[in-house]
Amino acid sequence: MTFHDAAARDFPPYSTDACIKCNVCTTVCPVARVTDDFPGPKYVGPQAQRFRGPGVGRDAPDHTVDLCSGCGICTRACPAGVLIAETNNRARAAIVSERGSSIRNRVISDTDLIARFGVPLAPLANIGLKNPISRWMGEKVLGVHRRGPLATFARRTFTSSWKRRAGATALPATPDPERTLVYFHGCAVNAFEPDLGRDAVEILERNGFSVIVPRQECCGLPFISNGLYDHARTKARRNLAVLAEFANAGYRIVGTSTSCTHALKAEYREMLDLADADAAAVADATWDICELLLDLHDRGDLDTHFAPVVEQLPYHPPCQLKSHGIGTPAMDLFALVPGLRAVDSDHDCCGAAGTYGLKAERWQIAHDVGAPLFDKVRAARTSGASRAACDSETCRWQIEQSTGVPTVHPVTILAESYRRADAAVGEPWRRIV
Amino acid sequence: MIGAGLSGLSCAAELAEGGARVFLAAKGMATTHWTHGGLDVAAPAGARTLRDGIATLAGARNHPYRTLATDAEASVAAHLARTATEGLEHAGSLDSPLVPIPTAIGSLRPAAILPAAQAAVLGSWAGERLLLVGFAGYRDAWAAYAARNLRHADWPGGPSEIRAADVELPELEQRHNIAPQVLARMFEDPAWRTKALSAISAAMPGDAWRIGMPAVLGLDAHAAVHAATERALGSRVFEIPSLPPSVPGMRLFEALRRRILGAAGRIQIGFDVVDVERTGNRVVAIHTEAASRTLRIAADAFVLASGGIGGAGIRAGHDGALTERVFGLPVSAPSRELWFSDDPLRPHPLEAAGIEVDANLTPRELENVRVIGSALAGMHYLDERCGDGVALASAHRAAVSLASNRAVAA
What we know:
heterodimer, A: 433 residues, alpha/beta, Fumarate Reductase Iron-sulfur Protein, Chain B, domain 2, Rossmann fold, 3 domains, four-stranded parallel β-sheet, 52% helix, B: 410 residues, FAD/NAD(P)-binding domain, three-stranded antiparallel β-sheet, 31% helix, 18% strand
C-alpha cells in the first residue's frame, strides 16, 4: 500500500488526486444517464473537490452533487481507485452542515421515529399510505412524491414479537460464538417487514444457530445519504455501543438488509469517521445473511434439504450489495433450490437509492433510472414469474411500486423451500417467532 | 480472470465458450473505454499490412510476438467472429493494406481492421472529397481544427479536398452535458435522429462527399444508427473516435461482456486483488477487497490480464522499483538510467516493462498462472501499434493452454 492509498483510506477525498479524468465513471453513472442536471461523478467529485475544504472558501462549488443518488457504481468502475461516491457523499454532508437540511429530509431519514408513530397507528396509517389524497397532500406539504415507494406498517414490530417469544437479547451465560449469531434486523424489518425477520431467524435456527436480537436502532444510513452526519453518528454510536460487546466477544452479526450491513461494515468508518477499535470490530463481525449462508455452504455446513420451488425468478442485486464486494451470493443459494431458475437483472440500479426515490423532486429521475429493470421484471411476469427477489428493502418497494410484481428477500424463498421440505416429511412447520 | 481489458475479456469469453467456469474480477473498468475501438494488431514503421507488421515484431528481441505470432491469425479471426455475433461487425484483415486514417485532431495513423462504423475511411479516396462534420457545443471533436491539420498533413492517396462543417444539432443548446455517450444515446432516438440528420444534410456543401463524424452514432443500436445515417445523407459515413470515454470502446466492452455472461461466466468490477494464497508454485486463491473481510476466490488457474505500466497492472514506486500488483511477479524493465529521453513525445521506455513468460505464457514462479495482454514484457505498444493484437493472441494462447490442461485433468 502506498502512502496515497493509506491516506485515502482514512479520508476518501484524498483519493481524488489519482483521477486521470477518463470519465469512465460518467459512462456508468445511472443518474447521469437519465438527467442532464447531474453532470456526472467526475465533475462533482474529483473536479469539484479541488475547490472544497478549509482555506478555499466556505461555499461548496457545485450543488449538483446533491443529485448523486449514492449508488456507488462510479467507485467500483474507476480504473484509478478514486473513492468517488464516498467523496461526493461527504461533499453533500458539508453542504448540509453549512446550510442546514429540509424538514422533509430530516423526517424521512428518521425511520425509528416514523416507526414509533406508524406501527401503533398501523391500520389508520396504512390507509393514509395507500390513499391518493393523503399521498397528494404528502407531496404538496412534505415533498414526498405521491408515487414514491413506501411500504405499509406492520401491526406489530419485530422486536415486540421477539419479546413475546422471550427471545435472547443479551450475551448468553455460556459463551458460544461459533453457534450463536447476533441478528441486526434494521428499521425496515422492525416496522415494515417483520416476516422477513422471522424467515431469517428460522433459517439460522434450522442451521443450528442460536439467535440473539439485542436492542438496536436504525443503522443511520438514511441520515448518511441525506448528509445529516451528526444524526447518523448518534445512531451509529448507540448501535456500536451495543454491538461491539458481541463483536469483541467473537460473535458474528448478521443482517437481512444489505444497506444496514454495509453501513456497519463500511459507512460508519468511511463517512462518519468512527474509526475506533469498536467500529472496526463490528465491521469485521458483520455479515450479510446470504454471504453467511453461502460461507456455511462452502464449508459444507449448510442444510441443503431444499424442497423444489418451481418458478422463474427475476433477481435484482442492489447497489448496496455490490458495494459489499461479495458478488451475488443469493444467486449461488438459489442454485441449491431444485426447480428455481433465478435470472440476474443485469441492470445497474432500481433508482430508489434509499430515500432518493421518495423525494418529489427526485422521483422522476429514480423512476427513469429503474425503468429498464422494471421492463425486465414486467417481461418476466408476462412469461410466468409471479414475483421478483432483491436483497434491499427500498429497492424491493421501488420494484413493487413500479411493476406491481411482489418482490421478496432471497431468504424468504429459501425459508419457503425449507418449509416445503418439512411438510413433505410430515413435520409440521412451527411459526417460531 | 484478473482484468477487464481486451485481453481479459477475450480470454474469459473463449474459456467460458469452451465450457470452463470463469470468474472475471477487475479493480475497475479498463482501457476499452479509452481506446479507439479499432484493432491495433501490428503496425511498426514500414509495415504494409498487419501480417507484415507481425513478422517484423516477431523478429524483435524479447517481443511477445516472438512466440505469439503464430496465434495472431486465429485469434483475430475468432475475435471478429465473436464480436460479430453481438452485432459488432468489423472490416479488414491481416492482409488488408495499412492505410493512413484521420484522428480527431487531424493527424494520421495507420489502420487495417476497423469496426464497421469506422470502416468507410479505409476505402481508396481516388479523387473523392472528405467532409468532416462537427457538432456545435460538442467539445471533444473540432471539425475545423482537424480539417486544417489534415490539409497540411502528408496524406498520400488522400482526399482531393477536405472541408469542415459545424452543425447545430436540434435541442443541443438546451443540454449542458454533451458527453459522447449522451450524444450516442440521443442518436438512438429515431425522432431526434431524423431531425439531427436533416440538420447535417442541410449543412452539406453538395452531395459528393465522404463524411467523417465524431464516433457517437449510437451504443447498442449503433449498426442501425450508422445505416440510417448513411441512408439519410446519401454518403458513406465513417466515425472518428475522439477523447475518452470512447463510444466505440464502450461498444466493444459491452459486446464481450454480453458474450461472457451468455456463456455463464461471471464478471465483477470493483474487485481489487489484495491477497494471494499459494501452495508451492501454485496459486490456490485470490482475495479481493470487500467492505469488511476480503472475498476469497479459489480457482484451478488464474489469468493475469491486469495491464502494464499504463493500465496500472505494474506500478512504479517512488524509489523506481517496479511491482506487479497482483502476484508480485518479478518485472522485467529497462534500468532506471534508461527511463529518460530527449524527446518527450516519444513513447516511454517503460512501456516495455512487463512479465517474462514461457511459450504457454506461464511465469517462471507460478505454474497455474498465465500472463496476457500488456502485462507481457518486451513490447512498445504505442509505437508498434500492437497492443490489441498481442492482447488477442495471448488471450487465445492462454485459453488453449488452460483448456488442454483441463482436458488432461479430466
